[in-house]
Design goal:
This protein has 209 residues and is of the alpha/beta class. Helix content is 23%, strand content 31%. The chain contains 6 helices and 14 strands. It is globular, with a radius of gyration of 16 Å. The model has no long low-confidence stretch (mean pLDDT 96).
Length: 209
């Protein structure tokens, strides 16, 4: 098994988790949801001696994407997002930046679909489309490492808000239940905000289980 080291920074106005997924052997690194504060992100990459190869965005809300364009330019790496949230990146109303701070827009390099299998930093990554928080929300499942980057779909004993543009409570219920049914109990869930959890924990305590 390829050994993964995961570290987190809590960044930006609403305390968003930015994840640094490091291949311990090659030092290649995946950045998940570079939320803000690009200089702080650079310092963390340097401290971990990482070589970023990709940015994975779980969805298009401003608090998960504000440093993505800068990170892409610094490291010359592609940004990935589910195809249905491409709109959010390009529309400050949909990504909510218009209402919270100055408007921010950007473009992704690679658009994803449910079931896509990626190979990044020598890790196998499966794309799971999990609409609810946004129409194009996606989780990234690292089966070998038993890790799920859940964005704002699944939280510790909770789930993401469904009162934003393109949100759907019905879709959120379906997405949560599908994750709980399909993923192993010992999968560690790394959410977009606050503390990590497990699929076993969420089967017992998530209100949508």
């Amino acid at each position: 098994m390829v050994k993964m080291k995961i570290q987190t920074l809590v960044l930006g106005m609403v305390a968003t988790n930015c994840y640094f997924l490091l291949n311990a052997d090659t030092k290649e690194m995946i950045l998940v949801d570079p939320a803000d504060e690009v200089e702080t992100i650079k310092d963390k990459v340097n401290a971990m001696e990482g070589r970023p190869v990709a940015v994975l965005l779980t969805h298009g809300h401003y608090d998960h994407i504000l440093a993505a364009d800068s990170v892409r330019k610094i490291y010359q790496i592609p940004v990935y997002i589910h195809e249905l949230d491409e709109r959010s990146l390009k529309d400050a109303s949909l990504n909510l930046s218009k209402f919270w701070r100055s408007s921010f827009t950007m473009k992704a390099d690679r658009l994803l679909k449910h079931g896509d299998e990626l190979h990044l930093a020598d890790f196998g990554v499966r794309v799971l489309h999990t609409p609810g928080h946004t129409v194009g929300s996606a989780c990234y499942y690292f089966q070998e490492q038993k890790a799920l980057m859940s964005g704002d779909t699944m939280f510790f004993r909770s789930y993401g808000r469904t009162d934003f543009p393109t949100s759907s409570m019905l879709d959120m219920k379906k997405s949560i239940r599908r994750l709980l049914q399909e993923l192993p109990d010992d999968t560690i869930v790394y959410p977009g905000h606050e503390m990590s959890t497990t699929i076993a924990m969420e089967k017992k305590y998530n209100p949508l289980a």
